[in-house]
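User: Continuing from earlier, I have the next pair ready.

Assistant: Great, send them over.

User: Here they are, in order.

Assistant: Folding the first of the pair now:
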Amino acid sequence: MSIFKIKGGKKLKGEIIPQGAKNEALQILSATLLSAEPITIHNVPNIVDVNKLIELIGDLGSKVEKLGPESYRFTASNVNINFLETDTYRKKAAALRGSVMLLGPILARFGKATMPKPGGDKIGRRRLDTHFLGFQKLGAKFNFDSEEHLFHIDASELKGCYMLLDEASVTGTANIVMAAVLAKGTTTIYYAACEPYLQQLCLMLNRMGAKISGIGSNLLTIEGVAKLGGTEHTLLPDMIEIGSFIGLAAMTQSEITIKNCRIDMLGIIPEIFKRLGIKMEFRGDDIYIPSQERYELETFIDGSILTVSDAPWPGFTPDLISIVLVVATQAKGSVLIHQKMFESRLFFVDKLIDMGAQIILCDPHRANVIGLDRKQQLKGIKMSSPDIRAGVALLIAALSASGTSEISNIDQIDRGYQNIDQRLKALGADIERIA
């Protein structure tokens, strides 16, 4: 198992380009199975989870052509859904949580599917009820084989309907939308997720011939069509990487320019980092972060301690809560971090405490961070990455710390961040990957 060895305390400088959005990629790539015609996707990130999904799509019989470093053409004219019954599929799908996104397109186009329980990060319960309840309302019938741990689904007669989702699940909404575009009649989805990734999916489907209205709102209306055609699509830059790089610049007192950010699609993310005292300039579509010796947390208008919490879009994304928490450790002031959506994502703060951070973990969802105001530098330690986002937060902490840190289990980080060590080296980081 590989390890990152980091000598911290160095100021970084330069430009960095965010990869294509991982969470969008998992939806968009799955949607290529909805049509027999060629679909070209650009800005595809070269990361483990995305590559595994591309491999699965190819195994299903879709013709996968790599047109360039970040561009692929998919032609799903000869899909073999019998592959879903094989042990190979079960093993690969069970190891990749994103494999659940294949379900909607396969059910819509072929009327049946088999799916093992998917894998993914150990960040608490991530239920699939929204996906399955949505499919059932469209007319799908589920049968769970407890011995084989497989879901067998019959969706031979999908019909449009009205549904009120039990939660604004991004992947759940995307999966239901992909199933509904080929269903008979009209589907109305209320309390739909409206993240930029989902907006991108809906816009792509419309270019393929779908009829989706209400894009960008929590009320989607989908008129089913008989078939979809081909198209070309470019993924957004990854907003989680952009937020991570903003936090990296602040923690390491670095001067960094983040290129091609699609600032118009970042929502409240820049504003949250500004509340942490981080200065930034928008230069066209780039974000320039100047070197800052100190940064001070805002308080609320009445003087009470700032609270940063996650929420469904257009609220603050849960994937950046760990970054905000780490950045706050060196700020002037205090902040309450409230991670509402996953109960285990704060279970990395013990490593930060070992590094010298002042954090009180109130419960699985809340942590009170008392900023050190740079009066005491974090110190390097040996630690393990528990999941993708916490792993990068720990990496940022290590880059700002005095001495040497080692982070094991970096396969988790590789699942979400493309060649992160090489890209950080280009900024001047002292980071080494040890096999």
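And the other member of the pair:
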Amino acid sequence: MSETLSAENLHAIFKAYDIRGLVGSQIDEELAHRIGAAFVQVLGAETVVVGHDMRPSSPGMAGAFADGAAQAGADVVLIGLASTDQLYFASGSLGHAGAMFTASHNPAAYNGIKLCRPGAAPVGMETGLAEIRDLVLAGTAPTSGRVGEITSHDVLEAYAAHLLSLAPVKGRPLKVVADAGNGMAGLTAPAVFERLGAEQATLVPMYFELDGTFPNHEANPIEPENLVDLQKRVLEEGADIGLAFDGDADRCFLVDEKGALVSPSTLTALIAHRELAKEPGGTIIHNLITSRSVPEIVTEQGGNPVRTRVGHSYIKATMAETGAIFGGEHSGHFYFRDFWRADSGMLAALHALAALAETDQPLSSLLADYARYPMSGEINSTVADQAAVLDELRATYADREGVTLDELDGLTVAHADWWFNVRASNTEPLLRLNAEGKDQATMVAVRDAVLTVIRSER
């Protein structure tokens, strides 16, 4: 039996929301084939739509998955090279279960699979992924007597048209620099901007060549070092805005006309404002490490802010329960009810462009009221005994006046002037700190005090 099919490996690569591992040693075509068959069996899927990113191993794995799904009796629709939100569009618009082969922002040595039910509903560990893993481990062969048909279908143009129908960009012409990081936005951005038209937006492309070896920088825009090239180019071009996408283009980060980084919380607040203007009184989801400015602005606009745990399966489930119109995460994921509650970096980018085109203000001025409080960003620390550190933080802050503690996701400690959250990683011996204060000095003091506890010799 291949090492990739061992119980130890399967438990390592089946994550909370997807499957991800090192190509060859942890994930290969044989495993992809078996996952395809198990996926069909667990979901009872009659048709599966399959897309893949630009990593060298992705086409072969997608093909193996398709063969496994067909052997299990499902028809398969191959959409070829795609962004993850393009796969969600195909799942939603065609009404089929879906599989996307990508390792998102991870380095070139990795690959993975994101799975969804018809209508882009997520498949996570609590909603089918564990059953798929266990079926693969059991080695049960497909029982269907029928072999499904495998066909191809190009959805790129329909995807671009749908996004622009949800966030039409009208007004003054814009100059836009976009950094695809050699990822899938190199395919999707040209399709969207061509439809938008040169009279509305001039696109300056950066690293649009599809290359899963990531020769320029990692396709992970949450790390500031991966945005330096975009910041410089925005200033050189005198552009109105810069867009940075991750490898599978389901996340988007902004750079303003001054080359400054824009917090995803700020973009969350802007999009929430826009969506509430269309649907007054609507519910907006935000995760618990999003800036306080988000629920404040939602409330000011007459909306209903709902706080949730970090992670797309929690966001999407809460959106379904509450009928929320929009959800945002501080990691750069943005979820839209009218996009099957799925996340789309390109749709978030179009909302930013639409808001900017409607005003004569530069982006920095437009966003000023949405960025009210300094944030630390996520700070990771390697900690062997995570529980002991969290216990010490509870003891340190529990009896302080004006302080509240909650454990919705990790430990959140809140005061009228500041808050911080410390969460353990699901996959690594890390504690993740996010902090915010009413001003820079307050944020720095809180951040440093918590880091002292986290990083003290134990």
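Worth noting for the second one:
Residues 92 and 294 are 28 Å apart (CA to CA). Residues 440-455 form the longest helix (16 residues).
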